[in-house]
Amino acid sequence: MNTTTFGLDIAKRAFQMYWVETETGEIVNRRFTKQQVIEFLGQRPAGRVALEACGSAHWWARKIVALGHEVVLLHARFIRPFVQNNKTDATDARAIWTAAQQPGMRSVAPKTADQQATLALHRMRSLLVKSRTMQVNQLRGLLYEFGVTLKAGRVAGLAEVRERLHEIEEVVPGTLFDALRDQLQHIERIDGEIRKLERQIVAWQRQEAACQRVATIPGIGPLTATALVATIGDPAAFKSARELAAYLGLVPRQSGTGGKVRLGGISKRGDSYIRMLLIHGARAVMFKSRSKGAWSEQLSLRRPTNVVAVALANKMARTAWSLLAHDKTYQTDYAAQRAS
């Protein structure tokens, strides 16, 4: 008996589902409420439910799996080409169903609640870091308007502000000085919130064996390890380490015609946050590590610094996938063996 495939277009309140009955061939495109979707799938035999990987999709994936169905999460970019005519909930549901039927269609691995929570902590921290940077830059700019220049760097600059508060008070008008002092306190509160989130992220890293294995790779710390493991989800969702690197946008962009393929800069697809963490980690290995490794040292002799950093980030991501997919531990002098 053939398994029924459902194309489900999710939203906050309106849910559209498209499927073809395997026994009668009847085409159905129905509108549901949230509770009706759950009740309907709970009464149906086990099948495949295809969703767009959008907001709340991972929660729905866990819910649908608990009802006994297989879930296929598809990127919106792969669904859009199958939307016919005007874009509506009904056409979106049919496009999702059609995309799920395509051979070799790539899917997104559903995330667990813990993985989603960890990524949420990362997003909160990232927003706070961005806000802190904006506050510090504004503080520098406002003081510069009154002839006060500060040292480069966030830590050194803020330390100098605190040391020179009496001097700044004499230069800056009283109304502005009170506001600047409040802004300093606000930056301190943001620092405290960032440290609190980082402690929560590190706590999850310590209890997850996968994060601990990934963190042993040079250039990968608690932040990168937790974000990478939470984003990858199930390593089996990627066919190879190179597919993960391509998913993170760390491979060359291809453009070709007439049998000729040209390679450009990196594609920058996927999650820019994790790509940033990996590249920063690669730079830390290049400039601060005592043992850079023969591979990166030889590459540094013939390639620019930025190219080496991205290549090393690519290697770090591929190594992380290998450790997770094959349940191995990191070995410094490991050499891959080719099958004869």
Structural commentary:
The protein has three domains: 5-101, Nucleotidyltransferase, domain 5, CATH 3.30.420; 113-207; 212-326, no CATH class. Helix content is 56%, strand content 12%. It has 14 helices and seven strands. Helix 8 (174-207) crosses helix 10 (222-232) and helix 11 packs across helix 14. It comes from Pandoraea oxalativorans. This is Transposase.
Write the layout of secondary structure elements.
Elements: E1 5-9, E2 15-20, E3 27-32, H1 34-43, E4 48-52, H2 57-66, E5 70-74, H3 76-79, H4 89-101, H5 113-144, H6 154-163, H7 165-171, H8 174-207, H9 209-214, H10 222-232, H11 241-247, E6 252-257, E7 260-266, H12 272-288, H13 294-302, H14 305-326
Helix pairs in contact: 5-8, 5-10, 8-10, 10-12, 11-14, 12-14
Distance between the termini: 41 Å
| H and E string | EEEHEHEHHHHHHHHHEEHHH
- What characteristic shape results from the CA principal axes? globular
Q: What is the number of strand segments?
A: 7
Any idea what the radius of gyration is? 25 Å
Integer tally of domains: 3
Helical run tally: 14
Keywords: Coiled coil, Plasmid
Coiled coil: 180-207
Pfam families: DEDD_Tnp_IS110 (PF01548), Transposase_20 (PF02371)
InterPro entries: Transp_IS110-like_N (IPR002525), Transpos_IS110 (IPR047650), Transposase_20 (IPR003346)
